[in-house]
Each structure stands twice: as structure tokens, then as C-alpha cells.
UniProtKB/TrEMBL annotation:
Superkingdom as given in the UniProt entry: Eukaryota
Keyword Hydrolase on entry: no
Keyword Ubl conjugation: no
Name this polypeptide is given: LRR_1 domain-containing protein/Pkinase_Tyr domain-containing protein/LRRNT_2 domain-containing protein/LRR_8 domain-containing protein
Amino acid sequence: MAVILDYAVFLLVSLLLPSHRVRVNSEPVQDKQALLSFLSQTPHENRIQWNASDSACNWVGVGCSPDNSSVYTLRLPGAGLVGPIPPNTIGNLSQLRVLSLRSNRLSGEIPSDFSNLTLLRSLYLQSNEFSSQFPGSVTRMTRLTRLDISSNNFSGTIPFSVNNLTHLTGLFLENNRFSGNLPSINPGNLDAFNVSNNLLNGSVPKSLSKFPASAFAGNLDLCGGPLPPCEPFFPSPAPSPYGSQPPPTSVNKKSNKRLSTAAIVGIAVACAVALFLLLLCFLMCLRRRRRQRPAKHPKPTGAVAARAVGSTEAGTSSSKDDITGGSAEAERNKLVFFEGGVYSFDLEDLLRASAEVLGKGSVGTSYKAVLEEGTTVVVKRLKDVVVSKREFELQMEALGKIKNENVVALRAFYFSKDEKLLVYDFMPAGSLSALLHGSRGSGRTPLDWDNRMRIALSAARGLSYLHVAENVVHGNIKSSNVLLRPDHDAAVSDFGLNPLFGTSTPPHRVAGYRAPEVVETRKVTYKSDVYSFGVLLLELLTGKAPNQASLGEEGIDLPRWVQSVVREEWTAEVFDVELMRYHNIEEEMVQLLQIAMTCVSIVPDQRPAMPDVVRMIEEMNRSETDDGLRQSSDDPSKGSDGHTPPPESRTPPKALTP
Ligand SMILES: *[C@@H]1O[C@H](CO)[C@@H](O)[C@H](O)[C@H]1NC(C)=O
Ligand SMILES: *[C@@H]1O[C@H](CO)[C@@H](O)[C@H](O)[C@H]1NC(C)=O
Ligand SMILES: *[C@@H]1O[C@H](CO)[C@@H](O)[C@H](O)[C@H]1NC(C)=O
Ligand SMILES: *[C@@H]1O[C@H](CO)[C@@H](O)[C@H](O)[C@H]1NC(C)=O
Ligand SMILES: *[C@@H]1O[C@H](CO)[C@@H](O)[C@H](O)[C@H]1NC(C)=O
Ligand SMILES: *[C@@H]1O[C@H](CO)[C@@H](O)[C@H](O)[C@H]1NC(C)=O
Ligand SMILES: *[C@@H]1O[C@H](CO)[C@@H](O)[C@H](O)[C@H]1NC(C)=O
Ligand SMILES: *[C@@H]1O[C@H](CO)[C@@H](O)[C@H](O)[C@H]1NC(C)=O
């Protein structure tokens, strides 16, 4: 009986023992290795005593899967952990669901192998000393629901790829040094969010505006949503020097934000000083204008300036209301995109974009608009449009289908009773006008001859394409409408808008480029485009803006100035001093000058057609620099090889027959 009992006990034990052994063996061997490796490389307080001969599943802070085959949770809050997380340790815990290392003194970067923690649901790293960009590995943890990296020293921008975390319900980024704009974070189920006390600026995206103001407080310059409204997308015209008060919105915003009286007093003093300076400026301008008639600045002519001032007084408040308050209108009038475009945003996105004035032109004001998702476009706000919506749309359709590498693509338009917008590609390299005239004499890199030739040819090609392939008159050729592509070729912008303005307003409100006959007929033609292009070539050659005060005499334009200099004595005086440093380019300069002079013939019929202009430039170049146009060269000595111009080319330019 005892034997039988013993046997039974033996059986029982032998039955139980293997299973016991299996249980012991089923501990997470690899994870244990990784954990031990982590602890041995990371200084910590003594109360974490992980017994290497025990199962890791028994350790303080470690939780395992039901079958003990892997570590599911690791919680070591306030454990006095110091220094960076060593690579190949925690990142090896590939089955980890919850990781909490909050309230330690961990520093440095989040190791990149954290991207292997694809099953992680919760990540708590707050109250440490991590300092790096937003950890890229985190955006791969696509199952994350809670992410708290607050109260660290993270910096850089918050990436749009946070949207990868589609299951996120809580995102805590406060008390760091994140900067830039807030991306439009929209994981759907987000119910807790905080980015307070960072260095963020720009508008609060709509997707986040449901969170309270305290979630955004203490940043550099956030606005919108629960915070005071942003400056409207279209800033009202600069306060006129006639002592009108600054726009009320900006005042409200400032005083809401900074409540200390000292700050308010400071602002008041600053305002007073600014107002005084403005007045001073205005008075000086008045005086100067009285002394020298032709405007000092090439772009805004007297007429334009007067208009701008007029609209300041009359139009400010109403136009602001139109754009921000007229949402019913906006609903009915959507932003219309053309086929083949790459953009997808709506009018609201556009209105929320941060905007910066690029320039006030003759047909309206251009803005650079940076959308929330980082897209940058140019928005042109047209003024004085007279045509009906139907006519406007027809013209836009014609312009929207124009696709040429030397023509800036029109991507979208918007038409409402009060607002007409055009959306173009943004060209970061800027305009020819800025390149030629911007900060002269202040040690900038001058535009070299090869690049000037390249711009002349590519702009001619763009214009020729408009004329021949699309039957479109550009109508507004000037150096600020010739934009530089990244490859240094040029593209023409702002084409074909004249039909929108009717004949009551003079086309070409910038006089310097206007063909003489246009003053009377008020109609732009292919031939008047050619004239304007000739002026543009002269501008490239002389470095002088048309109609600029430095031309000397009152009322003289660039073509007549060139003629007068050339007639007196053919000197290098006519050419841009910045070109004098390049050698062996005289012959080319003279050739281009001849082409320019035929373009600016007084009689329209004597001007060549644009395709002929293209051909003339191509041919002059082919014979001289052996296709050097297409390579951008920094070598000033490159060009025609060394022979001085023949004496006959030093005579005043004769008309070339096209
Ligand atoms: C972590 O994983 C890597 C790659 O699988 C391996 O080479 C390394 O030894 C592991 N580290 C530890 C501490 O287990
Ligand atoms: C570690 O665990 C083993 C087995 O569980 C035990 O015998 C040993 O005493 C423990 N060591 C310490 C320091 O707790
Ligand atoms: C897993 O480990 C824990 C702690 O050591 C233990 O209590 C539990 O019984 C183990 N479970 C299995 C299925 O082995
Ligand atoms: C982590 O992922 C990388 C590649 O994504 C892989 O090479 C590495 O072995 C992984 N480490 C672990 C511990 O799984
Ligand atoms: C977003 O998640 C996918 C996997 O779902 C991953 O392949 C991709 O790299 C992630 N993007 C970023 C920016 O992390
Ligand atoms: C935070 O990081 C900045 C640099 O990004 C550094 O200058 C600063 O000392 C860091 N602060 C702390 C508390 O580590
Ligand atoms: C935000 O700040 C950055 C850097 O300080 C600056 O470049 C950017 O223009 C700012 N954006 C806005 C909308 O203020
Ligand atoms: C955001 O964090 C700040 C600082 O920790 C806190 O004062 C504020 O109440 C928080 N706001 C929300 C909505 O959680």
C-alpha cells in the first residue's frame, strides 16, 4: 500500500515536475538578457535588485505575457536611472506593450532601435532629461495610444508624421523646447493633448482647436483656436501715416497675452515711437518727392502708391470682414483647382496659412502662404477686377491649362464678389528684380553674365510660348514677374490678366515697361509684350530699373536713356558696373543690346516677333559660347574667347531685321 502510495506520489511528482520545469524554462530568455544588459549599463538606485537566477517575470517592474515567454510591461518610474538608454537593450524587447521610465534622469536621444517596439501601446518618458529632435522611432509605433514625453528637453519641430499614430488618445509634449508650427494632428480619438510651454508659433490647427487654451499656453506665438485669433490671412494694409490707429485685432491679441502692466506700458511706448518714426518717414518722403519728380523706387509708381493709400482709408475694415467673416459666401465659392496640379487644400486651409507679403504689384498684392502641412504657394489677391464671374472663369480656364517650363503655372483660383484670388507655384529663388536690384553694393553676389544670358533666353522662350502656342498676350512683362527656377532658368509669371481689368484702368500701371502706343490705345498686344521684353533686356544689361531716378533726367525711360548714352559716345558706361569684372563678354553684351533695341522700336511693326527674339538670342549665343548657356558657370573669364569686339559693333546699334 505504502509502495503504491509512494509510487502514486512519485507519479504525481514526476507528472508535476516536468511541467514545473517547463514553467521555469518558459521564462523570456532573450528579454531577460536585454533587461540585465540595460540595468548593468545604466546607473540607478540600489532598490532595483534584479536576481539573475530568478525568472525575469518575478522582477520588480517587469510584467510578462501569460505564458511568460516575453516581457510585456516594464515600469521603472523614479528609479534614479541616469544617462542615455543604451542601444540593443530596451529596444530588443520586441513584444513590449507598456514602457514607463518617467521621472528619472535619463538623457540623450531615444535609441533608434525603439522603432522595433511596434506593439507598444503606452510610452511614458516624461520628466527626464532627454534632448534631441522628436524621436523618429516613435512614429513607427503605430499602435501607440498614450505618448507622454513632456518635461524633457526635446527640440526641433513636431513632425507631421505624428499622424502615423492613428490610435493615439493622449499626446503630451508640454514643457519641452519644440519650435515651429503645430502640424495638423488628427488621430480621431485624441482626447488629451498638451503642448504648453514650448517654443511653438503660428496657428492652432482646426483639428486641435477643441482643446482648452491651457493646452497651448506658454508658447512663442500661437494663435487661433482657443487662443486669440491669428492675424487674418490677408494682413490689412500697413497703417497709413495719416495717424490712423493700428488694426484692433492685434491690440487685443497683445493685451490678452501679456497681462503685466509693465508690458502694456512698454507696448504703448513702442507704439508711440513707431508712430513718430512713421510720421518722420512720411514727412521726409514728402519732401524728397517734391524735390525729385521721378519716384525713387522703381516698383510702386505714384499712381499705385496713391491707390494703396486710398484703399487703406476706405477699404480696410470691409475687406477684412469679407475674407474672415463671409463664410457663407466662401461656402458657395470654392477654390477651383486646375487639372494636373499637385495641391490638395481648401479655402479654409489657405485662410489659415501663415502669410507674408511678397510684393504689391500693379494688379494686386502677392503673398507667400505656408499651409499647415508645409506646402508653400503664392496667392495673388487681385484688385479692381471688372469682369463677371463667367468671364473670369473663362479666362482662368484658358490660363490654367498653360503648362510650360518657362511659364509659372497657375494652380487654382477663387472668385467671390469681394475677393479674387489666384494661386501659383512658389519659386523660392525669387524674382529677377530682386536679383538685379536687391541690396546692391552690400557684398552680395552679383548676377553674372552667363546667368543673365540664361535668364534672357529662358524668359524669351516662355513669352514666345505664350504668344505662339497659347495665343495669350502676357501684358505685364517686368523684372519682378520673371521668376527664377531652382535650375537658374527663368519662368514668366502674372500673364494674361489684362482682360480682367477692362480698358478703363490703364494696363501696365508700371510705366517703365509700357510700349508708347499702349498709352493711347490702352490695349496690350503681342508687340507691346515685345517692347516690354526689350526693356527687360536693357535692364539686364544696364542693371538699372526702368524709370529709375538714377537715369538722371526727368521723364526719361530706359530705352531713351540707353540711346542717349550710346549716341554721345559708345562707352562701357551703358553696361552694369557689376558686369565689368567679367572679361571677354563685350561682344555678347553688344549683341544683346542690339536685340533689345530692336524690341523697343517705337513703331510696333518694326519690332520682331517673340520667336524671332528667341532665335536671335539662341544664335548669338551659339556662335559665341558654344552652348555655354546651358551650363551655369561661375568662371567670370568664360565667354567668348578673347577677341575684342570689332570696331563697327561699337557704333550705335542698327535695327536688325527679324
Ligand atoms: C539585441 O538584439 C540584437 C539583434 O537581434 C542582438 O545582436 C543583441 O545581442 C541583443 N542584445 C541583447 C542585450 O540581448
Ligand atoms: C536569487 O534567487 C535564487 C533562486 O530563486 C535564490 O536562491 C537566491 O537566494 C536569490 N539571491 C538573492 C540575492 O536574493
Ligand atoms: C509566469 O511567471 C509568474 C511569476 O514568476 C508565475 O507566477 C506564473 O505562474 C507563471 N506562469 C506560467 C504560465 O508559467
Ligand atoms: C530591430 O529592427 C532591425 C531592423 O528593423 C533589425 O535589424 C534588428 O535585428 C531588430 N532588433 C531586434 C532586437 O529585433
Ligand atoms: C509610418 O508608419 C509606417 C508603418 O505603418 C512606417 O512604415 C513609416 O515609416 C512610418 N512613417 C514615419 C515617418 O515614421
Ligand atoms: C536643453 O538643450 C539645450 C540645447 O538644445 C541646452 O542648451 C540646455 O542646456 C539643455 N537643458 C537641460 C536642462 O539639459
Ligand atoms: C515661427 O518661427 C520660425 C523660427 O523662429 C520662423 O521661421 C517662422 O517664420 C515663424 N512662423 C510664424 C508663422 O510666425
Ligand atoms: C498642460 O500642461 C500645463 C503644464 O504642465 C498645465 O498647466 C495645463 O493645465 C495642461 N493643460 C491641459 C489641458 O492638460
